[in-house]
Amino acid sequence: MTYQRMYQPKVKTGNWFEDLVLKEETIKEFLDKRSRGELLSQKVDFLKQNILEHVNLSATFDGQLRFGDVVMLVNVGGQDREHSVLSINANVDNVTKTPLPSIKMPCGVSGGKGIQSCVRTAFIITSVDGSPEGSTLHFDQSFALKTTSGFAKGLYLTSDKPRFQKCAKKSGLQDVYLDDTLSVLSWWKISHFDPQERFESEGLPVPANEKVLVIHCMTNQGLAVLGEKLLWTAYGGEYEVVAHTFLDTHRAEQDVNFWILGTSDPAGDGLLFLRHLHVQQPT
């Protein structure tokens, strides 16, 4: 038989004293959690305050990418999906406040729909072959993509061959995630998006703000966004990001593999790559 409360706490009949004590304890627990910043709403606010903090992207004056540049990786979008940005997919369980506020491992990535240069979307082009900072990045040259220091903790974009219990959550394809160790699993290279131009472009400087392929060196799989695989994150519905090359009937890569390594406008007029996407800049 289902128990039904017959009396309210305000009356002096029945179990009113126990109800008052329980209510007081609930209020006290709530106030204690709030004072320690442990309420879920406080945790979400803390996460977003830190991970959405603005980051200045690098500006290129000659249209070329260089080691040390801070960029956003923007997928060009397609018929079944919007433009999206490679983003840190951290939730409240990925955050630690001691000794300093930062992201803790493991942490994944996703294709965020908000075009915003911030801690969550900024990556640093990092040398893995001894190339000095400021030198030009070339097609087919290995490099790493590292998050900014501080809250994002300088983590490396990493991928590995799919294995049982180690694959992308929705699709089961090769997972892409962030790791604090730089290894061959964190090496990437840039290829021309047009197969007919690929051989001629080898060794040439990589242009900023233009469509390219981002290839995982060890597995030779292209970074991709899956429009049909939605992840529900602390930032809303976002796309799953994997390392997998999708080819059309002509053996050419599909637009899920097309990325722009975006920089800011050297003239100070916002984000330069937005002109190529035909989207409105955030105010």
Automatic annotation (TrEMBL):
- Extract one GO BP annotation from the record: cilium assembly
**Cited Pfam families:** CFAP161
Q: Name one GO cellular component term.
A: motile cilium
Supply the PANTHER family for this chain: CILIA- AND FLAGELLA-ASSOCIATED PROTEIN 161
- What is this protein identified as? Cilia and flagella associated protein 161
- Organism from which the protein derives: Poecilia latipinna (sailfin molly)
